[in-house]
Amino acid sequence: MATQKPILKPGNFYHIYNRGINSCSIFMETANYEYFLSLYDQHISPVAETYAWVLMGNHFHILVRIKQTPNLQGFKNLEGSNIKTIEKRITQQFSNLFNAYTKAFNKKYGRTGSLFEHTFRRKLINNHEYLKKVILYIHNNPVHHGFCEHPIEYPWSSYSTCISIKPTKLHREEVIGWFDDKANFKFMHDKKVEVIKIERWLEI
Predict the structure, then answer these.
(1) Residue 38 sits in which domain range?
(2) Taking the C-alpha atoms of 47, 122, 29 and 109 in order, what is their torsion angle to the nearest 10 degrees?
């Protein structure tokens, strides 16, 4: 199914996702995951707040909210800038992340050409129920694909950060709040999550 690519607008939540071209691996070893996250912090943290994420072997999912006042290089006063120009620059930040990662990945493994199957996909999230379903979907991706039996066992997702007390840039307090409290957050993740059903509901 073709997926529309909405414009990334300040203040809105988006489910960002993509996979390797022909479902190829985009993460081969620990260093790949770590490098992707470092690039993510460099390119995306200035323009978006992160609420959930998971990096799988051949795909990823991220839940973000675009900042009301993105910190874009070259814009000293965003209030006086053309909104379409700002939105274009926000989208470019995500493209820069994926292009930088592709370049490094190709150099490391002696490959050429595209690494990702599409220009990154994004879906506008405009209701509370959608937010909760996306978080459950993201954190249960490793379980669905057979990497573990519970989200806490998988190292490359935001689940462990959500239940931790360590300092983080992840907006976990809001995430926990959407589930009322940490106990219910854990309870909802302990339940069997029908990933395929949610996937269809999300139209992924």
Answers:
(1) 13-202
(2) -100
Tell me how far apart the 2 most distant CA atoms of the chain are, in Å: 51
CA 19 to CA 120: how far, in whole Å? 9
Domain-embedded: residue 33: yes
Q: Is residue 1 part of a domain?
A: no
Whether residue 3 is contained in a domain is answered as no
Is the predicted pLDDT of residue 3 greater than 60, yes or no? no
pLDDT digits (tens, 9 = 90+) for 157-193: 999 999 999 999 999 999 999 999 999 999 999 987 7
0.85 surpassed by pTM: yes
Distance, in Å, from the CA atom of 48 to the CA atom of 71, rounded to the nearest integer, reads 9
| Number of domains within the chain | 1
CA 191, CA 98: separation in Å to the nearest integer?
34
Q: How confident is residue 86, by pLDDT bands cut at 50, 70 and 90?
A: confident
Amino acid identity for residue 116 in this structure:
F
Domain at 130, CATH number:
3.30.70.1290
> Is the Cβ–Cβ distance between 117 and 19 less than 8 Å?
yes
Say how many CA atoms lie within 13 Å of 28 toward its Cβ.
9
- 179 within domain boundaries: yes
